[in-house]
Amino acid sequence: MSLPGTSREPLQNSSPTLDNAPVTAFHRRMVLVAMGGPFCDGYLLGIMGVALSLITPALALDTLWTGLVAASVLVGVFLGGAVFGPITDRAGRHLMYVLNLAAFVIGSALQFFVTEAWQLLVLRLFIGIAIGADYPIASALTTELVPRRMRGPALSGLVLAWWIGYGISYWAGWLLLGTGDDAWRWMLASGAVPAVLFLLLRAGVPESPRWLASRGRVEEAREVVRRHLGQEVSAEELLVESRPDRRGGSGLGNLAEMFRRGYGKPALFCSLFWICQVAPAFAVRSFQPQMLESFGVTGTFGASALITTIAVAGTGLGLLVVNRIGRRPLLIGSFLCINISLIALTVLPLHYAALVVALFAAFQFFEAAGSGLQFVYPSELFPTDLRATGVGVATAMSRVGSASSTFLLPMATADFGVRGTLAIGVAITLIGLVVSALLAPETKDLGLAEASSRA
């Protein structure tokens, strides 16, 4: 099986050999293994949306603590992206690639034993840090191992994996509702199961040859390519879009270097469009059963599971078209459609539950279709030695928006009602539409060197 868009001939023969390499079983395996992290991310975030309504009475959470618990994992993602993105550029991809999934296993299992709200808050923060670390690690390694014609679908596939994990979490939570008073414990702890599986699969992943070359370890990089791809590459081909650097250095040094070398604009663009996608989306997902109930929908857990399943199909659509229509039209079009969906939920008199569910499903479908670009754009617009830093910064900034919106949503709903809160989402997605129209570049036909030189 091959990913959509991977069967065409290379678009430009002048790009480095790694960009034009034929797609092999090794590439497909690397993408599958990389998808494990986002799958676990989605599952660990989604299961809280199901469990939260059970946790609230079990741990006697008030409005403040409900918002804190829901937002804690997103605060952790901010810290994980901001801290571990630069560290990944300095320390390498492989070690971090394994350690962060080990953190998923430990954090998920310990949630079963919590007895107080602060304990759950700490564990969700810890899990969030691991999730935030995985974003730059998985996307950087995938970008640097696969050829150009596979890159867009592969990176979008990471977000598809996120949505599959998120969707499965709702169905798993729904099934675990029958386990009694401790159902929420089993829900939260169940995240350890997929994490263990993918942890074992990740153990055999090699270090990125592009990263090795960027650190001056060219012969090691050539050996990785020779062993896993059966190719011979020159030092020039490995170094074409990065600067060899044998020094150590800190994460803060990488951040300063990113802005010094003119990558502030792509960092701003990636941060802004990502914020405007996830701020309303995470708030709605975290409290979707409660919001559906406010519109008069019954069977909210089943409806939420159905909506999330439809969203997975939206991500699949994004994966199919990212190489065909391009990055820029996909981003702008998705923002336009989610804005229309939110406007309809805000202003229309909705008397039928089916129409309410359909509009929430449309919102999640189109948001999911554009969400693949959260991995694609940051991974393409930064060079190898700054790639994880750039992705980490964009991830961190996006979680400022998502954590704030998730924390504030219960209070905003109490003050303005569900429709008033959704109107705020309309404003945020409108900003995303304008930012995308002004700043989104087109990179679908470019090699990594060409894409990252667009800064």
Folded structure, characterized:
By secondary structure, the chain is an all-alpha fold. It folds into two domains: 20-205, Growth Hormone, Chain: A, CATH 1.20.1250; 246-454, MFS general substrate transporter like domains (Growth Hormone, Chain: A). Helices cover 78% and strands 0% of the residues. It has 21 helices and no strands. Helix 3 (36-58) packs parallel to helix 7 (148-176) and helix 14 (264-286) packs antiparallel against helix 18 (353-371). The longest helix is centred in the last third of the chain and has 56 residues, at 384-439. The protein starts with 16 loop residues before the first helix and ends with a helix.
Draw up the topology in text:
Layout: H1 17-20, H2 25-34, H3 36-58, H4 63-91, H5 93-110, H6 117-145, H7 148-176, H8 183-189, H9 192-202, H10 209-214, H11 218-229, H12 235-239, H13 251-260, H14 264-286, H15 288-294, H16 300-321, H17 327-347, H18 353-371, H19 373-381, H20 384-439, H21 448-452
Give a nutshell description of this structure.
With 455 residues, the chain is mostly helical. Helices cover 78% and strands 0% of the residues.
